[in-house]
Amino acid sequence: xxxxxxxxxxxxxxxxxxxxxxxxxxxxxxxxxxxxxxxxxxxxxxxxxxxxxxxxxxxxxxxxxxxxxxxxxxxxxxxxxxxxxxxxxxxxxxxxxxxxxxxxxxxxxxxxxxxxxxxxxxxxxxxxxxxxxxxxxxxxxxxxx
Length: 145
Prior knowledge:
Elements: H1 10-20, H2 24-47, H3 51-67, H4 71-90, H5 98-119, H6 121-124
């Protein structure tokens, strides 16, 4: 999971970045804000045992996550949405989603961390090599006596 291959489809992410152009960072910011609200609303609905309250935030998170290639996050949100919809129809509460909602929070955090690393130029730079700056000159002995 270090490179985020199993959390983010980087080809899809970069395709979205190219398609959205200069608006990409702004839209990604909306995803951060809206997604945080959706995850919090899902957690609150679980605490309140409110099946109806699970549907819209899970649906919203699913669509936004797919836009950026975060398929595992989208799939988890879709599971929550579909289970909640079924629960509404059967007039029950989906207690079986507790572990999924916990995983949703973890997946949300991991996804955001990866997006931050991919878009923040300060986090993508590597630390300079010890002992100086610039390129190491391979021929330092040339011309010396």
